[in-house]
Automatic annotation (TrEMBL):
Residues 21-243 form the Thioesterase TesA-like domain. This is Surfactin synthase thioesterase subunit. Gene3D superfamilies: alpha/beta hydrolase. Keywords: Hydrolase. Belongs to the thioesterase family. It comes from Kibdelosporangium banguiense.
Amino acid sequence: MTDDRWIRRFVPSPEAATRLVCLPHAGGSASYYLPVAKALAPKVDVLALQYPGRQDRRDEPGLTTVADLADGVFDALRPWTDKPLTIFGHSMGASVAYELTRRLQEAGTKPIALFASGRPAPNRTREDNKTYLLNDKDLTAEVKALGGAGSHLLDEPDILNMVLPAIRTDYQAAETYKWTPGPKLTCPIHAFIGDADPKVNADEARSWSDHTTGEFSLQVFEGDHFYIDKHAPAIIAAISARIDQAAR
């Protein structure tokens, strides 16, 4: 039985040989990955995750730990593991993606690859982030400073009131995440960052290599935390190429 609360399949591609699982950033939603689903269909079946506390799940309480998010995603994905999975996460989504991949591996499902975007490696998570404790005005200012598609909508009071609770719980999950040592992943890890991202530098991103026995690569793009908005075609092409490589 599938849990339809979590998974959005915007462009169903039942004939695809593989699936791509996309994990949103803090405050983000599944719809952020609609362009990815359109770009990769019908070759890849894209599953975009919808966390509690936003859009059509607005009435559900948000989850305040990465572990709880990863557990929820893992349970929802169980019916979808009949085909090989590739995992992608941006920002907080990269931490969720990593913890999800750990759970999948432990359960006997080895993803094709993990793509970690805009996030320090799990053992390099910064200790001084307490954004989630800010008042509403300062938290909003912090989110707007990072930019990203749609951040201007936070100027609308009605929209802000709708999305701010999810932003706060997501930031709490991202900023309180603590890595616990365990078996390394065996799938490749490919890290992406922007060269002007205040949330992660190249050294922190290279440490993703500490978390796998497989291949590692780091690709640096021009841009800030939401460099992926500008470079989406290149990132989608890189993911597609890795999926093709695994198929060969």
